[in-house]
UniProtKB/TrEMBL annotation, chain A:
The keyword tRNA-binding does not apply. It comes from Guptibacillus hwajinpoensis. InterPro entries: DUF3100. It comes from the Bacteria. Keywords: Membrane, Transmembrane, Transmembrane helix. The chain crosses the membrane at residues 12-33, 39-60, 72-92, 107-125, 161-184, 190-215, 222-246. This is Membrane protein. Pfam families: DUF3100.
From TrEMBL, chain B:
The keyword Membrane applies. The lineage of its organism: Bacteria, Bacillati, Bacillota, Bacilli, Bacillales. The chain crosses the membrane at residues 6-28, 35-56, 62-79, 91-112, 118-145. Keywords: Membrane, Transmembrane, Transmembrane helix. This is Membrane protein. It comes from Guptibacillus hwajinpoensis. It comes from the Bacteria.
């Protein structure tokens, strides 16, 4: 990002728009409503994203602004990480105490395979489903699949589909489901805090932000656990996919599709 | 070259910091004046991490340096950490997240054409992928934390 950010500070149209979006959305504040026993929380950051997306289609935003906005996301995330760092510092002993849970919950990221793969196969998706469900499809995982199967392979198309969904709606979706699941299930907010660190800064912010809004008493612990878990996911995610996620997905895919295949083979063999 | 980058990073972090400070005021009732020391500390931590990443030959993302520096300067054993902790408490983390997602919304408009080409099945699977990783991790964390008696 070294060279691309020259002179972006001069893009006043962009910064003034973002300032206006932030002022408006923070003024509206958190909006929440109940769905059965659960609570859905809509945070200012969620409408900020949707308003930003909407503005892209108006003359107020030109292609230039959309391009210039990207390095600001990166720098904004650095500020967020710095803030998480200074929350973790004082509570480091607590974090070390919870170390086993933090490390082991990384294996929970394989939940994508057990929950989403059967659904993908059921919906009739073929090898696309391997790229789709082997992980949560952030940048390192896209790299892995493209490297192994090629960009134009079914697996490559699959991982790109989930990547695009995550980029556009990941934060909004995570923000909504994290508050909802934390209020309808007996699972502790701190467990959900650890689960919020899935390897994407904005998704982590949205998921843990909803938890903070729903359980303000735990706010610093939620942020410390979510931040630490996100750092772990960033550093272990790729190896998790290479060593366990992808082989397991291939195996499960073979098992889930065996019935169909063996039927077809019997038909052919006879 | 590095100096030029530092200048650009500082300006952008400053713009971001001003926007976030106003959000911090409107949404969380912390007047910008009392948020200034905390915001400066956070910006300095970011700059230190960005510079380290640029100068050191190893290929580690700058956010890793920034996270570690943030932890180090706020640890109780570090002299002056009580100021870092006290000042940065005046920056609400949600006030930092809102401008990130506002910029992200504007930037992802470019991915919209790809998004609308996704079939309904991809969208259904994507939602289960996210729920899967989230619930999977939460269940394991819950189990371990309960076994340790931490919750």
């Amino acid at each position: 990002m070294a060279d691309q950010i020259k002179g972006i500070w001069k893009d006043w149209r962009l910064h003034v728009l973002v300032f206006a979006i932030v002022a408006l959305t923070e003024w509206i504040g958190v909006f929440s409503f109940t769905v059965g026993p659960g609570v859905v929380l809509l945070l200012p950051m969620l409408y900020a994203m949707l308003i930003g997306l909407g503005l892209f289609f108006t003359p107020a935003v030109k292609k230039m602004q959309a391009l210039n906005a990207e390095p600001l996301i990166v720098l904004g995330v650095t500020l967020l990480i710095a803030k998480i760092g200074v929350i973790i510092g004082p509570s480091l002993p607590k974090l070390i105490e919870a170390g086993p849970a933090l490390l082991l919950q990384e294996f929970g990221n394989l939940g994508t395979i057990f929950i989403a793969l059967p659904i993908a196969v059921m919906l009739g998706l073929k090898r696309e489903s391997i790229g789709m469900t082997h992980s949560v499809a952030r940048e390192p995982n896209v790299g892995l699949i493209v490297d192994k199967y090629g960009f134009n392979s079914p697996e490559g198309r699959g991982v790109m589909a989930i990547y695009i969904f995550g980029t556009v709606f990941g934060a909004v979706f995570m923000g909504v489901i994290s508050g909802f699941l934390a209020t309808i299930t007996p699972i502790h907010p701190l467990s959900f805090a650890m689960a919020s660190g899935i390897g994407s800064g904005s998704m982590m912010a949205a998921a843990s932000g909803s938890l903070v809004a729903a359980f303000p008493a735990f706010s610093d612990d939620i942020i410390a656990f979510a931040g630490a878990s996100n750092l772990l996911s960033l550093s272990t995610g790729l190896y998790m996919s290479i060593l366990i996620g992808l082989p397991l997905t291939e195996k499960m895919y073979a098992v889930l599709t065996r019935k169909k295949q063996s039927n077809a083979e019997i038909g052919k063999g006879a | 070259m590095l100096l030029k980058n530092i200048q650009e990073w500082s300006l952008l972090l400053l713009i971001f910091g001003v926007i976030a400070s106003f959000g911090n005021w409107i949404g969380y009732s912390i007047v910008p004046l009392s948020a200034i020391p905390g915001m400066i500390v956070l910006i300095l931590i970011c700059l230190a991490g960005l510079i380290l990443q640029h100068v050191l030959p190893v290929n580690i993302p700058s956010v890793a340096y920034i996270g570690i520096i943030g932890i180090l300067v706020s640890m109780p054993v570090m002299p002056g950490s009580e100021f870092v902790v006290k000042w940065t408490q005046d920056i609400n983390i949600l006030a930092l997240a809102t401008p990130i997602l506002a910029y992200a919304g504007i930037a992802i408009g470019r991915s919209w054409t790809d998004f609308v080409k996704l079939g309904w099945r991809s969208i259904v699977v994507a939602m289960f992928v996210m729920v899967g990783t989230f619930l999977g991790s939460a269940l394991i964390a819950e189990l371990v934390l309960r076994m340790q008696g931490l919750i």
